[in-house]
Specification:
alpha+beta; about 325 residues
Length: about 325
Amino acid sequence: MAPDPTDLLEAVVLGGSPTYTRADLIRLSGVPDDLARALWRALGFPDTGGAAAFTEADLDALRLVWALIEEGLLDEETAVVLARSLGQSTARLADWQAEAVGRLLVEQEHLEGRDVAEDPEVVERILARTASLVEPMERLLDYAWRRQLAAVLDRRLARTEVIGEPSADGTVGFADLVGFTRLSRQLEDADLAALVEGFEAVSADVVASTGATLVKTVGDEILFIADDAGVAAETAMGLHAAHARDPDVPQMRVGLASGPVLRRMGDVFGSTVNLASRLTALARPDTTLVDAASAAQLAQLPGMGLRQLAPRRVRGLGVIRVFELRRP
């Protein structure tokens, strides 16, 4: 019987075939069973029972975490939190990269509609390409992580934040596409995917260019944060301008709110985030609404125009003052 292509691909990516059970890892690493189980689940993987599901790399990783704990550089709780951050971040990253590379491979190898497992030559080419990509992508991932970590530390030190303090002031921005739900029902899957991918790519470029930080994208919505309302306003206007160049992209609306923001696991929470979301829902197509705290900052800056609107009652937040951002 021919080897399962999935098993072959797994061995290429993991650097070898799984040979260890969970009990083997516990015995060889010296890590307590409950901690090993917690770390594995934090990475986002199900329990493996007694199956041989682990490689030498799994054993090395477990030993490394345990060494950091024994040296006092981490405690068990922090190790699990870090494992969860890695699991959630890399799960999406791996899916994204596999989709992008897979799409290119389908085009180059003319694989549309074919059963890859039935063609040994194609399987060999896929394995060879994967083997050639794994190490360079691993190096690029390490490079990108170091760059991102340096940028985060720079931003926090520049704001004189206490490292590890979960809350700090900032300006949160929500942006979404008007009428996206209706449009999504009219588009073919491939066209919808292309629209969302283009929207996310353009939005990410704009956010990065202004100095704001992209927190996440969810379909037709993006969430970003900036150190101050001026940067957030430039981001909002940049988003409007960039997406207006594409006639296939629906009009955008944006909401900005300034105040304390709770940061946790790469996400943001709190009443400021809720207010930005509510302002987005109130905004008309191709407009940006800002709260009073943002307006107070923007009024001191050149190149920012504001028009005060009638106060709005927002569920859970009471009556709020609302301003429309304009270029003067």
